[in-house]
Specification:
single chain; GMP Synthetase, Chain A, domain 3; SH3 type barrels; five-stranded antiparallel sheet; 9 helices; 25% strand
Length: 304
């Protein structure tokens, strides 16, 4: 039976376990990483993953021991120290006038190193801050790590509008480029509340079903095209990809929904005015800064 752990950013590592060690599914263990001794939960690796790892096996990390009751007490104390260190570092940065937003402070279990994760719009000269922290935390290695806003969300964790844990907290390892065209093509309202995540950037999941929408769009007439319906001539007002139907504005001004088999494309112009901006897919009452939603600068640094 093989075990592994999941570190920050959904990196999975198999474990080097002594023959006399007795590890169970979901048990907390202390593992030695390149940062020092850290606490993780062990889980059983299924046979399918084991076969994949035979080709591209990640680095195996040695298990120090299974957590004892004394270790759990130390771990709880460590979490309290991390909160105090977080606010102390933030206050010192403010005194120095540094534009830094701190996401989290993390001690290694042996308390030999502390990492402060922060976001910043531009590169920060934190040399003086580092001196302050060295005085504040003697005999501890200090690591100030600049991360992107998407990385910040994956560290802090939470739940999205779908009601599930953020993708970047569960399985997403690499952030793909996302733009508002993905939302428009899928008929999603171009409003921040609909298309952005907690990071303030466009939802990563806009990429997931995009191909299905494009395939569906190939079978339906585009918005603005003329069609013949059972109720007469009209122009397509909106496309409903999932329902495989279209909303059509007729000559009398009424808008009705029709399935693909019930309509037929018409060559040439149809003299019916439609206002695409008033389409139900868009909400003009909210001013949207598209550029800020698509800004990928410092969104993800891979520096976790």
């Amino acid at each position: 039976m093989k075990f592994a752990i999941r570190t920050i950013k959904n990196q999975f590592h198999p474990l080097k376990i002594d023959d006399n060690a007795n590890i169970k599914q979901g048990e907390y263990i202390i593992v030695r990483t390149d940062k020092g001794e850290e606490v993780f939960r062990a889980f059983i690796v299924n046979e399918q993953i084991q076969r994949l790892w035979e080709k591209h096996k990640p680095e195996a990390l040695p298990v120090v021991r299974v957590m004892t009751p004394e270790d759990f007490k130390t771990y709880e104390e460590q979490k309290e120290l991390e909160v105090k260190a977080f606010y102390k570092c933030r206050d010192l940065a403010l005194k120095r006038g540094l534009v830094m937003k701190f996401a989290q402070a993390r001690y290694t279990f042996d308390r030999k190193k502390i990492t402060f994760y922060y976001t910043a719009p531009e590169r920060v000269d934190f040399r003086e801050l580092l001196k302050d922290l060295t005085k504040e935390f003697p005999r501890v290695r200090i690591d100030l790590r600049h991360i992107g806003v998407r990385d910040e969300t994956s560290i802090i964790q939470g739940q999205g509008i779908c009601g599930q844990d953020y993708c970047c907290c569960r399985f997403l390892k690499k952030f793909e480029q996302v733009n508002t065209k993905l939302a428009r093509d899928q008929g999603i309202p171009i409003t921040p509340g609909k298309i952005t995540g907690a990071c303030g950037r466009l939802l990563c999941c806009l990429n997931y079903e995009y191909k299905n929408y494009i395939d569906a769009a190939k079978t339906l007439p585009p918005v603005g095209s003329g069609v013949m319906t059972p109720d007469g001539v009209g122009r397509v007002f909106m496309v409903n990809f999932l329902k495989k139907s279209v909303n059509v504005k007729l000559e009398d001004g009424k808008i009705k929904e029709y399935q693909k088999p019930d309509i037929e494309m018409i060559d040439g112009e149809v003299n019916i005015d439609i206002d695409i901006n008033n389409n139900m897919n868009y909400q003009e009452e909210e001013v949207v800064d598209i550029k800020s939603l698509e800004d990928e600068k410092n969104s993800s640094t891979g520096n976790i």
